[in-house]
Amino acid sequence: MKRRACLQWAGAAALLALAGKVQASAFEDFQVAIVRDNYVLMQQLLQRGMDPNTVDERGRPGLVHAMQMESLRVAQILVRAPGIRINLATPQGETALMHACIKGHLNWVRQLLAMDAKVNQPGWAPLHYAASADLPDSVAIAALLLEQHAYIDAESPNKSTPLMLAAQYGSERMVQLLLDEGADPQLRNEQGLTAVDFAQRSEREFMVRLLQSAHRASRRTQSSW
After folding, report:
1. Neighbours of 53 (CB within 10 A)
2. By the 8 A CB rule, do 163 and 179 touch?
3. Which residues have CB under 8 Å from 93's CB, separation 6+?
4. Per-residue pLDDT tens for 108-157?
5. What is the pLDDT of residues 194-217, one digit of tens each?
6. How far apart are CA 21 and CA 34, in angstroms?
7. pTM of the entire structure?
8. Which of 30, 92, 179, 203 has its Cα between 20 and 30 A from that of 172?
9. What domains, with CATH codes, occur in the chain?
């Protein structure tokens, strides 16, 4: 009886070990599919029952990682997968929509918004990411987010706004869009910096002049009430 029990225990342990190896192999294949944009492999993994929301060792959900890597064929497979969680974020709060914004993928932004991707959230928001990019469709992406009621003066963890990021990293068209839509040029972050200061840090004198003019106009408007 003891010998039989030992054999049964050993058999169960072997099966568990084998299952563990299979799971580890599937996990590795999932990450490889993302990095290499291997949509065929990803489709096979999902058909075998792999969770499309699987996170990597850094806590990045598959869809977020795919958008970050610009593995767009894999991302398309993932967004169509049953049970996909569009708003699942990394430990730092980054979502697939945020990476679509900073990478300048307008069609992806449209698709994710149509699937109820969140436009507003505490801390870093999609509009921060769009405003800090200077790609062909960046301004159109920011305009689309604003149409979907993105908060224009959203505060990052250190209270920096999209306008501040646009002043340092974005285009003049981006800054003008945000100003035209009502962004407040007088706001300061936790370091006491305004959008003008952000522009000065990157030595963008044309942006400094634009923002200083908006700042003066904003002060006159407020004092007239």
Report:
1. 16
2. yes
3. 121, 122, 123, 124
4. 999 999 999 999 999 999 999 999 999 999 999 999 999 999 999 999 99
5. 999 999 998 889 899 999 989 888
6. 20
7. 0.86
8. 92
9. 1-83 (1.25.40.20), 92-225 (1.25.40.20)
Both tokens of 120, joined, read 């507003």
**Which residue, among 67, 49, 172, has the nearest Cα to 117 in the 3D structure?**
67
